[in-house]
Description:
Blueprint: H1 5-11, E1 15-18, H2 21-30, E2 34-39, H3 51-62, E3 66-71, H4 93-108, E4 121-124, H5 126-129, H6 134-141, H7 147-151, H8 154-160, H9 166-169, H10 171-186, E5 188-194, H11 198-212, E6 217-221, H12 249-257, H13 264-271, H14 276-282, H15 288-306, H16 308-322, E7 333-336, E8 342-343, H17 344-350, H18 357-365, E9 369-371, E10 374-376, E11 382-383, E12 388-393, E13 397-403
Helix pairs in contact: 10-11, 12-15, 12-16, 13-15, 15-16, 17-18
Amino acid sequence: MPNTLFQELSMRGFINQCSNMDAVMDLLDNGKIAVYLGSDPTADSLHVGHLVPVMMMRWLQKYGHRPIMLVGGATGRIGDPSGRDTGRPMMSEETLQKNIAGLKKSYSKFLKFGDKNGDAIIVDNYDWMKGYSHLDFLAQYGLDFTIPRMLSMESVKKRLENGMTFLEFNYMTFQAVDFLTLFKEHNCMLQLCGADQWGNAIMGVELVRKKCGKEVFVLSTSLITDSNGNKIGKSAGNAVWVNEDKTTPYEYYQYFRNTPDDLVEKFLKIFTEIPLPEIAELSKKQGAELNDVKKRLAFAATEIAHGTDAAKKAEETATALFGGGTNNANVPSTDLEMKEVMNIVDFLVAVKLFDSKSEARRMVEQGGIQIDGNKITDKNYTVEPAESIMVQRGKKVFLKVNVK
Length: 404
């Protein structure tokens, strides 16, 4: 007997917390509903840390449910305080619009958009929030949120000691109005969110109940962490981006190829659509066979995000570089204006392998840099201009520098 959708999601490890497990199970397995997932435009691409609920939404669409992908043009102007010790920097309108376009591009890699039943749609909460004056908003929703309830939220508690602003304090009310609006306009019954968004999402459930007397639901996913237990995200400095202009398909492939042994099964379940029985068999592999499983994981995850051709090229590049081959045509590359010799540290920063000279200098002194196959340990080493220069950082990162 094939798995129901809820069984599939549960067995793959997507489900963290649910506002009404029995009701949501019934909705997902016995009907077709609209489900929404929101992301603020804090960057011009999603990253791997965002993808757990996005992949869950992909499964919902495969089973016939309709995804509503919300881009937070309004909430992005406030800044979500969840999981932060300080406020988010304000963005210019130009940056905001650039980021919104980038998020739409990211979503389209994982979901099918269109006008047919089950096709995903994209909405921007700025479209309805811009119509409210401050007085209008307070008049319509001011009595629906109590200060004690808002202060009870973990995202608020953690920020109060660091000087949470009134601007940030309003964030949860905006997100609640999003759920209410999508319920009214699209009969949206379920919100997906990461574990750190639980409090904000529950405020939406409460607002719909107060305004409409109806029950809607929230389903949260676990957060993905790196091997050190750190949340994967832009602010943590370890983001692996979805859009290829920020992280190439080869680098995306290598991220999954280098998955720690103890996370391989988890990543197979979440980031690929390999059937569960096959994953159970793959997860039994050890030693050299486990490396082959990681290759399978990397290819399957890259194929979803970038397509079959890009996944094949990434796989071929990795095989050439790490299998002793010489074909580096598909290695990530960058252009550099270089008319004369450059100090190795300046060179590494110029090609954006490091954000600072101190980081680059430390890596050189630790023996972690190779230029055209030669290990460089002298911080005063100078790089000669050439048509192309192959740079290796550590064991896994390669960059082809095309000199102009």
